[in-house]
Amino acid sequence: MERKDALRPISRRDFLTRTTGLLAGIAAVGLLQACGGSAATPAPTAPGGVSGTQSAQAPAAGSPKRGGTLTVAVQNDWVTMDPLFNTAEPTGFAMMYDGLIRWGKDPQSGVWGPQPWLLEAWDLQPTEARLTLRKGVKFHDGTTWDAQAAKWNLDRMIFHPASSAQANLTGIDISGEDQAQLEALRANAAGPFTFASKAVEIVNETTLRLRLKNPMGSLPSVLSSAGAMQISPTAYNKAGKDAYARNPVGTGPMRFAEWQSGNQVIVERYPEYWQMGTDGKPLPYFDKIVYRLIRDDSVRLLDLKSGTIQFTELIQGKDIAGIKSSGLTLAQSETSGNNYRLIFDSTNQNSPFVRQKDLRKAFLYALDRDAMLQTLGFGAGSTRQYLLPKGSFAYPEGVPSYGFDKAKATQLVKDAIAATPALAGPNGKIPVTLTVIQRAVDQQQAEMLKQFADSVGFDLTIEVLERAAWTAKLVRTPGQPGGEFQVATMRNPVTADDPDIQWRTFYHSKGSFNVAHIADPEMDARLDRASASYDAEARKKLYRDLAQQAYDDPWYGFMWQQNWNWAYAAKFQNFREPVTNLWIFTENWLG
Q1: Do residues 490 and 343 make contact, with C-beta atoms less than 8 angstroms apart?
Q2: CA–CA separation, 520 vs 556, rounded Å?
Q3: What's the start-to-end Cα distance of the chain, in Å?
Q4: Element of type H or E holding 357
Q5: Could you tell me which CATH number the domain at 4-331+564-590 has?
Q6: I need a surface site. Which of 89, 284, 327, 467 has the fewest CB within 10 A?
Q7: How far is Cα 173 from Cα 197, in angstroms, rounded to an integer?
Q8: Is the pLDDT higher at 87 or at 432?
Q9: Rounded Cα gap, residues 490 and 320, in angstroms
């Protein structure tokens, strides 16, 4: 039961005050769209580090220098330049687009939390949220960003049938909407977006009102996600959904120049950007940024050492020691990182993992997570047992988890075969197929998983798919039902963000990356109750109950985490820890 004070209005200042204690010790976030994930709250990193490394927040060195081209390397290819529909690489978005809210570090308290971006202020109350807009902002095509454009973007975020953010916006009151218009929108989802909702109201030229059906504690996190990045209504409605995806128009410090699929993305300085540099001229300092696609980790590192690129991320554990003597700098985050996970398809009725719940438990007990961390991550990370990382205010300390227990795993498999002999193949083992993405660490991890699984009574076959095929098989979106699989692996950015973002993304029946295809009304109801409150203690209890439910009926398995890191050349100046791969280079320069 919620406390009565949960019904009092909560202002932006009150929200920041309440969340200060919750956010301390949290590190930078991950965005779910980079393999599924979500944007969330970063926090201070532990200071210090070994030679050649630094904490993730570095001071500016010298005076800013204008001009030049920054070349950076990304690991994954882009599938769209529309942030609302993205399920893959988001790098470059934060330079082409501005968001409504960003997460940043308070210089006095050292705590990370929501800060103004295109929203100058926000006021959260039980049944509405008031959003105050920044003035003087224009899109790259000359369209003014004003209350009308902001409403259009929020309406698209809330109501477009393909929106990746819908599952995180269930607190919005949509009861008064015209159902005929919504049906027309669904019928023409690829065309211009002309739907105007009652849920988002224009109060005046600088104020919007969001109608809420209940308190929505996660709203600042949702409004900081990639899906809330502002795009030009003019450009989108002229081009339509698919054509816009290759010709983006935002309000960011750089404008889109070129996208060569499978190769690179180029953005160029927008000379009329609203934010000014220390020299009184519009940011950014760079003239151009080239994002090169380099999938191979060793090639990215070689290019960084040779100087052909100046910035990249996610240096593998085996390569970290080599950074020390290379003249490069490595910045590390202690909490945020890439969480390597297992997923069982809950809808594949031919899967032994659906027919026998204990086989999922057996698979999870068979995992030697310490061995995986040391072998695959070279110790540069941590083992994982839960969805939420340590540092989250809702971390489920004390809830049972699946530790390494080979004997228990073996017995569970034997019991399953005894109960249903048809599960076993001619060799007496249970045949299963593991689907993995075509990426070096994932394939090495698959070989370890095969050893673990085969040793307790499974007969595991590895299916390796390139990224698009892997996504098509796992992810269900409108018009893309997803294929059946038995067990798969994935890697998702994670941090101690608002718990609703992580839980809803992966476990809600409408979650944007619910790759286990879970449809559990009880879990949905708990998630909805947890998000419909500003009471941290009430929410914490509900998330603990969810963690217990996820343990009792496991559709995901959490294995190990590679801590997020960024490596860059000595001449790259003024590094600030980004929200994982949503790199913001607005105030950087090459010395």
Answers
A1: yes
A2: 14
A3: 57
A4: helix 357-365
A5: 3.40.190.10
A6: 327
A7: 10
A8: 432
A9: 23
Instruction: Report how far residue 114's alpha carbon sits from residue 43's, in angstroms, rounded to the nearest whole number.
Output: 11
Q: What is the pLDDT of residues 113-126, one digit of tens each?
A: 688 999 999 999 99
Query: 44, 105 in Cβ contact below 8 A?
Result: yes
> In whole angstroms, what is the distance from residue 58 CA to residue 218 CA?
29
pLDDT of residue 107: 61
The values of phi and psi at residue 429, to 5°, are -110, 165
Structure tokens at 565: 């890191």
Helix (H, G, I), strand (E, B) or coil at 444: helix
User: Rounded distance, CA 31 to CA 88, Å?
Assistant: 10
- Does residue 138 have a pLDDT over 50? yes
Distance between CA 553 and CA 177 in Å, rounded? 37
For 92: left if phi > 0, alpha if psi spans -120 to 50, otherwise beta; the answer is: left
Q: How far is residue 118 from each of residues 65, 86, 274, 473, 525, measured CA to CA in Å?
A: 26, 21, 10, 37, 33
CA 120 to each of CA 99, 115, 131, 140, 519: distance values in angstroms, whole numbers, following the listed order = 12, 8, 8, 21, 38
What are the tokens at 315? 């240096």
Structure token pair of residue 11: 């202002």
Is 259 within 8 Å of 92 (Cβ atoms)? no
How many residues appear in the chain?
591
pLDDT for residue 370 is more than 90? yes
Q: Among the CATH numbers 3.40.50.1950, 3.10.105.10, 3.40.630.30, 3.40.50.11220, which is that of 337-563?
A: 3.10.105.10
The count of other CB atoms within 10 Å of the CB of residue 484 is: 13
Mean pLDDT is lowest, of 155-164, 168-177, 528-537, 562-571, for 528-537
* Residue 46 DSSP symbol: P
Q: Residue 547: is its pLDDT beyond 90?
A: yes
Nearest to 116 by CA among 274, 6, 316: 274
- Name the percent of the chain lying above pLDDT 70: 86
CB contact at 8 A, 560 and 340: yes
Q: What is the pLDDT of residue 276?
A: 97
pLDDT at residue 23, as a whole number: 38
Handedness of CA 117, 119, 122, 128 (dihedral sign): negative
Over the chain, what is the mean pLDDT?
Answer: 87
Per-residue confidence (pLDDT) for residue 117, from 0 to 100: 96
Which residue has tokens 């600030």?
A: 576
Residue 479, pLDDT score: 56
Average confidence (pLDDT) over 418-423: 96
Q: For residue 43, what pLDDT is reported?
A: 30
Domain range summary for the chain, segments of one domain joined by +:
4-331+564-590, 337-563
Residue with tokens 């994930």: 37
DSSP per-residue codes, 142-202: S-EESHHHHHHHHHHHHH-TT-TTGGG-TTB--TTS-HHHHHHHHHTTTS------SSEEE
For residue 296, count other CB atoms closer than 10 A to its CB. Answer: 13
Give the mean pLDDT of 519-534. 91
Distance of CA 280 to the CA centre of its chain: 34
pTM (2 decimals)? 0.73
d(CA 250, CA 143): 10
